[in-house]
Amino acid sequence: MPQVPRQDKAPTSADVARAAGVSRTTVSFVLNDVPGSGISDATREKVLAAVRELGYAPNAGARALRAGTGNLVVYAMPRWPLGPAINSVIERTRAALADRGLVLLVHGDRSLTGTDAALAWAELRPRAVIADTDRCTAESVDLLRRHGVRTVVLVGEEDVPFAPTVRLAQRKVGRVAARHLLDRGHRRIAAIVPTGDLAEPGELRYAGLAAEVATTGLAVARHDLGFDHDAALALARAWAADPDGRPRALFAYNDEFAALMLRALRDAGLSVPGDIAVLGVDDTPLCELVQPRLSSVALHTSDFAEAHVRVLLELLDRGPHEPWPELPENEPRVVVRDSA
Amino acid sequence: MPQVPRQDKAPTSADVARAAGVSRTTVSFVLNDVPGSGISDATREKVLAAVRELGYAPNAGARALRAGTGNLVVYAMPRWPLGPAINSVIERTRAALADRGLVLLVHGDRSLTGTDAALAWAELRPRAVIADTDRCTAESVDLLRRHGVRTVVLVGEEDVPFAPTVRLAQRKVGRVAARHLLDRGHRRIAAIVPTGDLAEPGELRYAGLAAEVATTGLAVARHDLGFDHDAALALARAWAADPDGRPRALFAYNDEFAALMLRALRDAGLSVPGDIAVLGVDDTPLCELVQPRLSSVALHTSDFAEAHVRVLLELLDRGPHEPWPELPENEPRVVVRDSA
């Protein structure tokens, strides 16, 4: 373990130069890995030893400015809570960047959009920024580029013209679910729309479902629900008491809400899929664990995360003004099990 | 939306001063919110308007150095994958810091420890750092302090003497599980130890379980298992074929593995808890959704996350050399449902 002398002030690059017996320019060449600077391996080792010895950390902004680029990639935390899908994207992105010596920083300020958001991200002088389309404008992307951000990748429901967009469309999830239920002959379709933190993606999935169902002249019965056993049971009991009025198929927003409804429907004496079919979303491990096994719309999270990472890496290799590569788009499909 | 002039270079504070018709010192006073600098509201507004107009973002390191402190809090991503427990800690920490105008940055480099890790975090010139005990040494904490990090909060299995530690003990989870199963009269106890990414916490939970069971002179049958239906089913079938040899209680690492085993045991014709009791960990929503309802060791995630945040905020208000407040420790307890 390197000996770190106790002192009150942070060491500077001048301290490193003194300790290594070299010039500050040499220190800078070594730390910024400047090509063609003619530094011998022995000198490089001496400088790095002094850096370790003294505990010298150039600040990221200063280092990025000197070297023309930093090793940080800012991932602006999406506005809805962390869950299995976003965890998977973060984990894969993190690992792929680490293979290139880049560090993922998940930026926790969810309140900012537009140029305010861009200024907060630009402060870190990152090499790349990944963010949702609804937090960016043409101006904010331009601002990032002027602060040395080489690559901006956006994620969103729809393409935007000012930056490469990886489409993760929630409406499409609802449309695919509707098509599955309609194709199986269901005409009385209901939907759970979550309240609270998940309201925003909930509305989008519902909108896709309702639009697709509407193409057949039918309507969807909408039920806004928190993740609450009593509320779920009340809904299931109302359906049990009204055999003629109850839906024959339920789109349950995601697998957790679907499992909640499976439990409530069983407790209310209704059978799945006999009395009512239930369809979840996300194709999580939960689907195999509940009774009956849950049919679910797969967002292709792992494919999507891989495509996301592939695009990011491709874009990192291009200049900011080069055309961008073909971009992935999620293609949800139904994994059919026993519940719908 | 502010007009951002297209230009190739990032604007400087000199550009802001020129645009606002004030000195660079005035710009610096406004941006760093220097108390007692006698800046009028009108001047402040003019400077802020120019900042917006030009799209000026001082880099975080430079700003932190000038102001003596930054608004960033680095949370070093733990080494095991993001899951419901860590998501909850991140979400709450993020929200509490945002209330104070601080921004959580989740740092994605899992490979570094000791002074290397400290150097990577120090580059961001954060105001506070939260990290696991096994990635920090006395030297690395000292190094962070010398780079202006006011607050270091560690999280770990055991206290360390060189920084305040929030204890999140996995061994204790295993001990509490063992005590519950022993108290219910079980003498033949088995444990699932996950392979792969979760091996590390898996070993700790298993070690606690085995140590507690050993106090009664008994041993635990250990089964290493990936999250795999076929492997789970093979294990359950082996138990079904050997009524005398099979365990009467199973500690299943977490709720997902417990649900996996519930499904496998049912498919193998064994009843829970009649033939074998099953205990999970985490007290997730899954517990109420599987059949039978799952008993589970609650880590008190939400209490714990709250305590974690409370300590962090208290420490932010103290100088780095003041004594630290009393620190929370997780107190797992069993939430008894139908499975054990």
Oligomer class: homodimer
Average pLDDT, all residues of chain A: 87
Largest interface: A-B, 70 and 69 residues
Structural class of chain A: alpha/beta
Distance between the termini of chain A: 59 Å
The CATH topology of the largest domain in chain A is given as Rossmann fold
What's the CATH architecture name of the largest domain in chain A?
Answer: 3-Layer(aba) Sandwich
Which superfamily, in CATH terms, is the homologous superfamily of the largest domain in chain A? Answer: Response regulator
H-E string of chain A: HHHHEHEHEHEEHEHEHEHEHEHE
Number of domains of chain A: 3
Q: Outline of chain A, from the CA principal axes?
A: elongated
Major β-sheet profile of chain A: 6 strands, mixed
Fraction of residues in β-strands of chain A = 15-25%
State the main characteristics.
homodimer, alpha/beta, 434 Repressor (Amino-terminal Domain), Rossmann fold, six-stranded mixed beta sheet, Peripla_BP_I (chains A, B), Lambda_DNA-bd_dom_sf (chains A, B), LacI family DNA-binding transcriptional regulator (chains A, B), DNA-binding (chains A, B), transcription (chains A, B)
